[in-house]
Amino acid sequence: MAKIIVTGGCGYIGAHTLVDLIENGFEVISIDDNSRSTAQLLAGVEAITGHRVKNYKVNLCDYNDTRAVFQENDQIAGIIHFAAYKAVGESVVSPLMYFENNLTGLVNLLKCTEEFEVPHLVFSSSCTVYGNPDAIPVTDETPEKRAESPYGITKQMGEQIIRSFARISKTQCVLLRYFNPVGAHPSNQIGELPLGRPANLIPAITQTAIGKLPQMHVHGTDYATRDGSCVRDYIHVCDIAHAHTLSLQYLINHKNATNCEVFNLGSGNGITVLEAIAAFEAVSGVKLNYAIGPRRAGDVVAIYANNAKAIEGLGWKITYSLTDMMRTAWLWEQKLDEEEKVFLKQNPALN
Ligand code: WQD
Question: Model-level pTM?
Answer without folding.
Answer: 0.96
